[in-house]
Amino acid sequence: MSRKFFVGGNWKMNGDKKSLGDLIQTMNGANVDPNVEVVCGAPSIYLDFVRSKLDAKFGVAAQNCYKVPKGAFTGEISPAMIKDCGVNWVILGHSERRHVFGESDELIGQKTAHALENGLGVIACIGEKLDEREGGITEKVVFSQTKVIADNVKDWSKVVLAYEPVWAIGTGKTASPQQAQEVHEKLRAWLKTNVSEAVANSVRIIYGGSVTGATCKELASQKDVDGFLVGGASLKPEFIDIINAKA
User: Fold this and answer.
1) Which of 2, 41, 198, 242 is least buried, going by the fewest C-beta atoms within 10 A?
2) 3-state secondary structure of 10
């Protein structure tokens, strides 16, 4: 079955109303491949602003959320609040959440379950660090991260898996198309064995890690690469080129 190409932009902690307004204007006016699902991950304080300005053909994502609907959790936001802003996606388990903010696999699993129960789509991130790749344990790491996510998913149609080798995020190093394809293929095989063949065939596995206008076309041509999660380049006009990588 054909999987709809998915391109997420993770704006991280960047932008202000002026610069994001300019970016939104560029996106709204651009010719983008209608066969691609595009979702922009905005800082939480701008979710309402971005959703109100961005063309409805583009989705919007929060970059994180908590595992309960409300309560005494200073500084957190819930899926219910995200949905109340008209936003339908959340990015969970990004390596910066894991490694800068110390989020555990278990917490990411709980967040995933709660987000899905509340009707959000989840872009669930997994990926190994440089010492783990060099130590030959890439598969062990990404499979264990995927298992905790999988244990918390009932409806896979609302999940996009983002493979982001941590050593390639923001470093300018991109996994080669072959390296990306190899891990994506192994992830699909893991899903087939541990979830189901139907899920393995239908779930989109996207690549993240220094994706640019220059690297996107060859990455997009790989059989098991179903799109991208784009960092820095998603704040620039070249994001349009990345969206159109398959065109």
Assistant:
1) 2
2) strand
164 flagged as catalytic: yes
> What is the token pair recorded at 133?
């790749």
Prediction pTM value: 0.97
The whole-angstrom separation of Cα 235 and Cα 98 is 23
Provide the pairing of β-strand 5-10 with 227-230.
parallel
134 labelled catalytic = no
- Dump pLDDT digits (tens) for 122-158: 999 999 999 999 999 999 999 999 999 999 999 999 9
Contacts of 213 (CB under 8 A, 6+ apart): 233, 238, 241, 242
Please answer whether residues 63 and 44 qualify as being in contact, where contact means their C-beta atoms are separated by less than 8 angstroms. Answer: yes
Task: Please enumerate, as own/partner, the contacts of 137-141 that have beta carbons within 8 Å and a separation of 24 or more.
Answer: 138/165, 138/183, 139/183, 139/186
* Catalytic residue selected from 114, 128, 164, 184: 164
Render pLDDT for 117-132 as a digit per residue (tens, 0 to 9): 999 999 999 999 999 9
The SS3 call for residue 28 is helix
CA angle 184/240/203 to nearest 5° reads: 25
Q: Are 14 and 213 in contact (CB under 8 A)?
A: no
Q: Which of 37, 94, 103, 128 is catalytic?
A: 94
The residue type found at 140 is K
Closest CA to 208 of 190, 186, 225, 188: 225
Nearest to 235 by CA among 16, 67, 61: 16
Q: Are 208 and 231 in contact (CB under 8 A)?
A: yes
Q: Supply the DSSP symbol for 12.
A: -
